[in-house]
Amino acid sequence: MQHRTTYIPRFRISLVRETRGTYTEQKLSSSADADRLLRPMLQDLDREHFIVIGLDAKNAVIGMNTVSIGSLTLAIVHPREVCKPLILMNAAGFICAHNHPSGDHTPSSEDRQLTTRLKQAADILGIRMLDHVIIGESGHYSFADNGCLS
After folding, report:
1. Sign of torsion, CA 109 41 37 90?
2. I need a surface site. Which of 28, 55, 68, 112 has the fewest CB within 10 A?
């Protein structure tokens, strides 16, 4: 009987810096800080963009990753894609955010369900979810400020 050799692929996982932006704050301590950081990137887009911000143990920004770019009304987001860059950044915590191209920052039922799933996944992995912020034309909505992350 002849044995066939099977080769198993080996992978190296790495985090690659694409660009570097400037940010003057030392750390993110409120949803207003997150809004100030993200609004210039998200305010005039014609599609939903979902971003995750990795934070160190003192809530200083380690880096950001665009998890998903969707359509006018929807960005497909899965906890696995949110958590992957956070693990690679060695993040202790994170804030996630997305824009509503309609300008209305009111969360949809899908936004609420996603936030619950992300919080559950983060808790399992031991990464603190500090907030989920929705950027709208005239303001922002913070799940943390509204007591939705307890």
Report:
1. positive
2. 112
